[in-house]
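Today's session is about reading a structure prediction critically. Students often jump straight to the picture, but the first step is always the sequence itself: look for stretches that repeat, for charged clusters, for runs of hydrophobic residues. Only then move on to the predicted structure, which in these notes is written as discrete structure tokens rather than atom positions. Here is the chain we will use throughout the hour.
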Amino acid sequence: MIAAAPSGGPNVLVDAPRYNSKLAARMEALGGVDWILLTHMDDVADHCRWAERFPAAQRVMHKLDVRDASQWPYIDMTGVERQLSGPDATWELAPGLTAIHTPGHSRGHLCFQASGKLTGGDAALFTGDHLAQNARLGRLDGFARYGWDLAQQADSIRKLAALDFLWILPGHGRRVAFASAEERRAAVEKCADDFSRDPYGERAPGPIYVQPPSESMARRSGGGGAVRSSSPSMRAEGARMGWLDDLTDAVLGPPAAAELVDGCAESYDQASSEAEAEAERAAAEGFDGETIASILMSKWGVEYDVEFTQTDYLGVASLYLNVFPWTADQTPWRHEGRHAYLEHLQAVSELLIKWGQVASVTRQLEETSLKPRRGTIPLKTVPIRLNLPNELVRSFRP
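Below is the predicted structure for this chain, in token form.
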């Protein structure tokens, strides 16, 4: 969110989180919401409820991504007030606030550029699912696995290089700050080249972060963790980041409870206390596919396969992350090599972060006494239950 009302500008909500009355009250205290900017169709979440709470807000979305409730992701977007279309690639929504059509991840994906005057600091580009620092690949990236048209996405990334911004603030992946316009231009152009030639990162540098195991895992394995950064000035996460963190504090409360986890546009936070909320934020910091692989290895000595499984009993839908007794050295094994396996775990990790389930899943994996077993009928999995609302579980398609 950009809270510019105190200085005479609009308050802007980029992508719609799951509705939360406490968060809404804090936004109201900051002057309400004037714009709800939706980058693409699968990050709209509770946009209708936010629009009901702030009826004067104008929702913005590209017409090519608008869906009704009968189409995936089964959320009605037809009531969005401003549906952009036509030959234009950019639209000035308000002084210092511009929408840019960036097709690739989806047909109608939009990025939103906010000037320094609007943010009260450096200019920023809100990139949705189009562009972010990929911790697993160690590069600025477009996350090809989830893209609709990768060639178009590479072209869309390239045209962003000339825009005026020093921050990339994504919906998924890690945020990035540039030291200068020259660094931004070079980095974004390189990203477009890399994404065009090697979209899935077969030749990418590799993980930026290696998540340290939890204390109980460390005791079992005797191991530790390490961190490395991609470059000194292209910062991903770590230290506090100026105006963005000041805004975070204003919206979510004091610093002790205000560290945001990037990539939570549709997060579902069921924490019943600040302690639980803090535990989730700490668990999600640096959590990725490699983290899941290391947890499985520490727990059972092998990297088992995992997958989401839905159940429906007496009208109550539940979603589990099942650990299956399948490994790379045995059949069946559905992944074409370890790279594909880690890509799958990365997708799982991003969903767990989005849903606010990292701490719960990690704790259940540590505490379970079960072990996946082959050779039984049916085979034995280790079910890890996710604490999610019924409607979200029913809308999810594994």
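Discussion point for the tutorial: Residues 209-272 have pLDDT under 50 and may be disordered.
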